Amino acid sequence: MAHDLFERRVFFVVGKGGVGKSTVAALLAVAVAERGKRVLLAQMGPGRRLAEVLGVDGGSEAPAEVFPGLCFLTIDGETALGEYLGLVLAVKRVHRLVVGSKLYHHFVAAAPGLKELMTVGKIWYEEQLESGRGRKWDAIVVDAPATGHSLQYLRMPAAAYEAFGAGLVRREARRVLDLLEDPGRTAVCPVTTAEEMPVNETTEMYTQLRERLRMPLGVLFVNRVHAAPLAPEAVPAAPAGASSLVVDVLRCGREEAGWSAINAHYLARLRANVPMPTVELPFLFSEEFGLSEVRRLLGHAERQLATLPAAGAP
C-alpha cells in the first residue's frame, strides 16, 4: 500500500539550513499540484532561494502563480499581524492609523514570539480560506526556517495558549494548535543529508517534534545521497603515464565512493534513531537548479513513496 502522505492538507518542511529543505518543499508542492489540487507553497520569513527555484518574484504580499494549480507566498510575521488586525478592526481608517503608528511598530519589534505566532496563524488562516468552489487551497506546503527557528515558530501557539488563561489570544492559539496537532490534516516532513551534523540535529528535532510538540510526522527526506557502485578502495589508481582525463575520472570516482560510504554510515544511524518512513533523494550534478531538477527528484521520490506503508500500517 502506498504511503498516504498526499492525503494531508498542510505540510511543514523542516530541517537544518543548507540540507535542501526548500528543494523538498518545492518537490512536495509540485507533487500535490500535479495530482490536480490547488496548492499554496508558503515560505516562512525572508529568503530568495525558493523563489529562484520556482522562477517567481518572492517579494509580493499576494500569492504568485508558479503554474496553474500552484502559487507561492512569502509569509512575514509583521505583515500577517497587520492582515489580522484588518479582520478585527472593521473600520479601515482605524486599521491604517494603528498599523501606521510608531508605537505599533515598536510593540511588534519588542513583543517576544508575536511574529512567530502570527506567521503560524497565517498558515491556519490560509487553510481555512473559502472560495466559490469551497476551500481556496486543497493543500499548503510550508518551507519553515532552519531547525532551531522553526521549532520556535511551532512552539509559539502552545506557549500562547498556556500563557493566556482566557480571551482572544488563547482562543486563536487553540485554533492553530488544533491544526498543528491534527494527523488527518497536518504532516511534518524533516529534511536532512546523510552527514554527521545534519543527522545529529535531525535526531534531536525528531525527539522535540514527537515528545514536546506532539506534531504528526510524515516522511523523512534524506537529500543529496551519493550511491557509488564501488567502495573507495576498489577504485584503481591511475596507471603510470595516464592522461589527465583518466587521472581526473579516477579521482572523482574515489571521491564519489568516499561520499557514498559516509552517506551509508549516517543513513544507518538515521534508521536506528529516527524511525520514520524515509525517502532518499540523489545528489544531482547540475549547474542550474529549477523546476526541471525538482521534477527529476520528484520521480525518485514518487517511486519510493509507492513502496512505503500507509501511516499507521504495520
Secondary structure: elements and pairs:
Layout: E1 10-15, H1 21-33, E2 39-44, H2 49-54, E3 64-67, E4 70-75, H3 77-88, H4 92-99, H5 102-110, H6 114-128, E5 130-131, E6 134-135, E7 139-146, H7 147-163, H8 168-180, E8 186-193, H9 196-212, E9 220-225, H10 244-273, E10 278-282, H11 291-305
Helix pairs in contact: 1-11, 3-6, 6-7, 6-8, 7-8, 9-10
Q: Which oligomeric form is depicted?
A: single chain
For CATH, the homologous superfamily of one domain is named as P-loop containing nucleotide triphosphate hydrolases
Helix and strand composition category: alpha/beta
Helices and strands, in N-to-C order?
Answer: EHEHEEHHHHEEEHHEHEHEH
The low-confidence parts are: none
User: Which architecture of one domain would the CATH scheme give at its second level?
Assistant: 3-Layer(aba) Sandwich
Strand order of the biggest β-sheet: 3-4-2-7-1-8-9-10
Kindly provide the name of the CATH class of one domain. Answer: Alpha Beta
The percent range for helix content is 40-55%
> How large a portion of the residues is in β-strands, by DSSP E?
15-25%
Number of strands: 10
Number of helices: 11
Biggest pleated-sheet summary: 8 strands, mixed
Shape: elongated
Give an account of the 3D structure:
By secondary structure, the chain is α/β, with parallel strands linked by helices. The chain has helices at 21-33, 49-54, 77-88, 92-99, 102-110, 114-128, 147-163, 168-180, 196-212, 244-273, 291-305; strands spanning 10-15, 39-44, 64-67, 70-75, 130-131, 134-135, 139-146, 186-193, 220-225, 278-282. It has a domain at 5-78 and 116-230 and 276-299: Rossmann fold, CATH 3.40.50. The protein is elongated, with a radius of gyration of 22 Å. It starts with 9 loop residues before the first strand and ends in a 9-residue tail after the last helix.
